[in-house]
Structure formats: C-alpha cells, structure tokens
Design brief:
Order of helices and strands: HEEEEEH
Distance between the termini: 17 Å
Strand content: 25-35%
Largest sheet: 5 strands, antiparallel
Shape: globular
Protein name: Conserved domain protein
Number of domains: 1
InterPro entries: DUF5301
Strand order of the largest sheet: 1-5-4-3-2
C-alpha cells in the first residue's frame, strides 16, 4: 500500500508547518515504526474541500488518490 501511495500521490504547494493538520475536523493518524531508526514517523490522512491529503509534519502535504484514501480509511477505521 505504501508503494501505491507513493506512485499515486502528487505534491502540493502547501507547506506543513505544524505538528498536526490545522483547520481539519477529522483525520486518521498513521504511525510508521522503523527497525533501524530511533524515531518513528507519523502522517495524517484527511479530507479538505473534497480532496484527500496525506500530511507529514514539517515535511510536506501530498494529494492522494481517493481510492487509496478510502482503502486506508476502511483498513484503519475498523
């Protein structure tokens, strides 16, 4: 699924300047635990103005394909 997200997302001109998304009512938190790194990483999946985004704090905001976003929501919301 991560490869699909990478292939089917596109960078936006929006910057991520906070620890979590702002002006967004609901979002899904996705944490990645890395074997060979001290710190885990986190991304947020949310919908804003009928578009789906993944935001990594201070790294960037990417628009994702609605099909991918729906699959993530179904997988992690259950």
């Amino acid at each position: 699924m991560i490869e699909e997200i990478q292939k089917q997302s596109k960078s936006t001109s929006l910057e991520s300047v906070n620890d979590q998304p702002t002006n967004v009512k609901d979002y899904i938190i996705i944490k990645f635990y890395h074997q060979n790194e001290e710190k885990d990483s986190v991304v947020y999946l949310y919908t804003k103005k009928k578009r789906q985004y993944i935001e990594q704090p201070y790294a960037g905001i990417w628009e994702v394909n609605p099909d991918i976003a729906n699959r993530i929501e179904e997988t992690f919301s259950s």
